[in-house]
């Protein structure tokens, strides 16, 4: 029973000595690409979810060459929580507008097939559905896996009129209440992926439209990708913030920044000053 209740520690992926070999010049391999410089296969982790990264590295302690996004490094990685209740997702949806404005739009126009059908409604919901436009669908990644947390929003004349976040199965649903036919744009976004923009949809009240989208990795982010040099990737357990490690400066050598080894040593006074 105690094992079932045990909470796994979060981990951190850190790369002390990154190399900058051109990923596009490497030879394609089964799990990534082969680097002639390192004579090793470089595994592509850029499409891994936090759960997949945690599962891959939590039980490994050997040398791995990998390709990562910067946002995957030096950050807490743990097993995702279980799906939240509908009420929780409802309150998350209320804050969608604020979240959505923080994500940049690439302006990519998606060639997305969609179907438009009349709404099926019962007498109880007849008045509500008569004035509603429903946009729903599923968002998947390049591996055809459902994408959780993708942001979907509908715009009319540049104004956001509806928004939603995909669930753990990649599904979403938007409701637009209007009394006359209008044109809408639907924008789908997810961190690390190109935005999808379905434009000029002529929709009338009482209709529904299905838009299924496959997102593509944003290749521009590759400029920030770090590839290991064949040295072991350091997996660091994330300790609680309250944990403090005391350092005796008299008996310990000066601290050196591993990313800038030629930089002067970091003194305890500098650490104390930066902490405040």
Q: Which terms summarize this structure?
A:
single chain, 5-stranded mixed sheet, Immunoglobulin-like, disordered N terminus, 276 residues
Structure write-up:
The chain has 276 residues and is of the alpha+beta class. Among the domains are: 76 residues, no CATH class; 82 residues, Carboxypeptidase-like, regulatory domain (Immunoglobulin-like), CATH 2.60.40. The chain has six helices and 17 strands. Helix 2 links the parallel strand 5 and strand 6. The longest helix has 9 residues. The N terminus and C terminus are likely disordered.
Mean pLDDT: 69
Strand content: 25-35%
Write the H/E string, N to C: HEEEEEHEHHEHEEEEEEEEEEH
Low-pLDDT sequence parts: 1-7, 96-126, 242-246, 271-276
Largest sheet: 6 strands, mixed
Termini separation? 44 Å
CATH architecture of one domain: Sandwich
